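Quick one from the shared queue. A colleague (R.T.) flagged Hydroxyphenylacetyl-CoA thioesterase PaaI as missing a structural entry in our internal table.

Convert sequence to structure tokens.
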Amino acid sequence: MPEAAPPGASAEQARAMWAADAASAALGMRLVDLGEGEARVSMVVRPDMVNGHDLCHGGLVASLADSAFALACNSRGPVTVAAGFEIDFLEPARLGQVLDAHAREVALRGRSGLYDVTVRVGETVIAEFRGRSRSLGRRD
């Protein structure tokens, strides 16, 4: 079992992971909040993010949720990766809208975790994402 991180070290490790995340940066994602087992990330829907129906591409909504999920499940220290996820799209997102993804830890058992991410535009829920994580049992 890995050694516990000193207070505040887990958040620092998650922030370092975020700082090196070129994919999220390229999509203009912004870290809004980070806590133990929880994260909030936002993104503005740009013209290069809309599909042939003039709606935000679903894969980009999933990418936003996945980035919030990654921060939440790495907020405790050990390097943690996705084992899988599901996403349900409830409403479309449109050009210029600000998407907000709030990830929350639901369960953590040994090296496995379960996280829910709600993606909203204002008060409107756009998508619900459930991610399964697996700790690699090491720290970077």
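The two ends are 15 Å apart (CA to CA).
Helices lie at 9-19, 22-26, 58-73.
Added to the table.
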